[in-house]
Structure formats: C-alpha cells, structure tokens
Automatic annotation (TrEMBL):
PROSITE patterns: FE_B12_PBP (PS50983). NCBIfam families: TroA_like. SUPFAM superfamilies: Helical backbone' metal receptor. The lineage of its organism: Bacteria, Pseudomonadati, Pseudomonadota, Gammaproteobacteria, Oceanospirillales. This is ABC transporter substrate-binding protein. Keywords: Signal. It comes from Vreelandella halophila. It comes from the Bacteria. Residues 1-21 form the signal peptide. CDD domains: BtuF. It holds the Pfam family Peripla_BP_2. Residues 41-293 form the Fe/B12 periplasmic-binding domain.
Length: 293
C-alpha cells in the first residue's frame, strides 16, 4: 500500500512539474527570455509581430495590439494599446500581459524601458531574413506552447521560399529600384529582407551597397542608376500613386518599357509568411520586365 501511495505521489509531482514547466526562447537581441509557464496573455507592439503570433498558432492568446494590426481578420477585433511610436502604458497594464512582443527598432525606447521597470516580460523581435522569419514563428510557438502549429507553418514558409528559388534562381538579372517611401524618398540596402526577396526573384537591388538599412536617397540618384524596373508599395493596399511620379522621366528604362510595378505593401514590407505572396507577385513582375526586353 505504501509503495502504491508513493507511486501516486510521484506521478502527481511529475504532472504538476510538467504543467508548470518553464519555457525559454532567445529573442532577436540575443537574450534568452524564460516564462514560468506558456504565455496566455500576449500583447503585440507591431503589426508584423501580430501576424507572426497568429502564424505561430498563438492568435487566441493575443489580448492587445497596436494600430494597423490588420491581418489576419481576427486581429482587427483586438483591443488597441497605442501605435508603434506611442504606447498606452496604462492600457497595457490593465490587460495583465504575461508576455509583450517588442519590435526592436520600431517602439519608443523610453516606453519599453518603462514596461521593463514595471516587471513585464518583454521579448524583442525583428527578423531580418527568410530564416529569421521561420525561426521567429518557431520561437513564438515555443513561448505560447503552440509548437505543432508554429513549426508546421515555419516549414511551409521555408518550402515556399525554396519553391520560388527553384523557379527563378537562374533567371536573367533585372536591375531594380524598390521604393519604400515617397517623402522622403527611401529604399532598402542589401541587409534588408526586401532585398532578399528581390534577389530571390532574380532582381538586382541598385542600392544594395548603401550603409543604412533603409536609406534616404534622391531622384537624381535613381535617374543615374537607371533601373530596369521600379517597384513600389504605397500608403495603402491599392494606392499606386507613388508610381505616377516616375512616368515623367521618359528616359528611364523602367518608364520607357512600362516596368513601373505595384506590390501591396503589407505582403512585401512585413517580415511575415505573407512574403510568399508578395514574393510571388514580385517575381511575376520581374518576369514581365524580362519579356519586355
């Protein structure tokens, strides 16, 4: 009888320990973040982080987001706790989060430091390349105990990238200017994940060698670079106005050949699995440019 009670006690101890097992993941600052148990009340401080949380299977655990967290549709129904640049700290505290996902370069430092002072657990995220995106999904799913969903989605993303690479890896190069913003005029350098998508499609980023990740440039340098294709997002998913400006420069190869291409910005400017959609669109646009030679 004593042996039986001891066995039952051990089983109870194991079950209790498992239920409250610590979970850990390294964030994009290289810091290991540990929780006493999987996160159940998560706040996202960027639209990209919101998408990654849903991709990781943790959407049901998200209790607050910043504005413009518009994908997937369920994210639109969540409480707003401010914007990327200005957080409502009191609102965040009222939601009692056990995990806050911070965007490394997007959120105000003084406010994120304040959240740390208030003993909230912060996890810094900002993937810079394809593998970083897949890894982010896996790490978030670890913290939320949704690894089955998260790891499956990460594998789907990796496979989709490889499929595009197989299809366009040997395509003739197309010199590309990618416009991130209009005023001031901005682009991306060779360290940015958008550059990686351009290369995936057989494009050549004419600003790859610049030092800043998202450098400011002028129109004269674009004219001097004479890209074969100009690709832009815009202020919205259907807003193509940024491309109108380039139509006045008839000497540009991109303008002369009609290679002024719009790609919905949320599919190409957020490091999330939707890069597969944006990448497929961009690859088709650059294939059109090749056909117009």
């Amino acid at each position: 009888m004593l042996h039986r009670l001891t066995a039952v006690a051990l089983l109870f101890l194991v079950a209790t320990t498992t239920a409250h097992a610590e979970v850990c993941a390294t964030d994009d600052r290289g810091k290991e973040v540990c929780l006493d148990s999987p996160a159940e009340r998560i706040i996202s401080l960027s639209p990209g982080a919101t998408e990654l949380l849903f991709a990781a299977g943790a959407g049901d655990d998200v209790v607050g987001v910043v504005n413009y967290s518009d994908y997937p549709e369920a994210a639109r129904e969540l409480p707003i706790i401010g914007s990327l640049k200005r957080l409502d700290v009191e609102r965040i505290l009222s939601l009692s989060p056990d995990l806050v996902i911070v965007w490394v370069t997007g959120n105000p430092k003084e406010q994120t430091e304040r959240l740390e002072e208030l003993d909230l657990t912060l996890y810094y995220l900002e993937p810079r390349d394809f593998e970083g995106i897949a890894s982010a999904i896996e790490r978030l799913s670890t913290l939320a105990d949704t690894k089955e969903v998260g790891y499956r989605e990460a594998d789907r993303f990796r496979a989709g990238i490889e499929s595009l690479r197989d299809e366009y890896g040997d395509a003739d190069p197309v010199p590309v200017f990618y416009q991130v913003w209009d005023q001031p005029l901005m682009t991306v350098n060779g360290e940015h994940f958008i550059h990686e998508v351009i290369e995936l499609c057989g494009g050549e980023n004419i600003y790859a060698e610049l030092d800043r990740l998202v450098p400011r440039i002028d129109r004269e340098s674009v004219l001097a670079g004479n890209p074969e294709a100009i690709v832009a997002g815009g202020m919205g998913e259907q807003n193509r106005d940024w491309l109108q400006e380039w139509k006045q420069y008839g000497s540009l190869t991109a303008t002369e050949r009609g290679n002024l291409f719009f790609v919905p910005p949320s599919t190409l400017q957020r490091p999330t699995p939707r890069l597969l959609e944006g990448g497929a669109t961009l690859c088709k646009k650059l294939e059109t440019a090749r056909e117009r030679r």
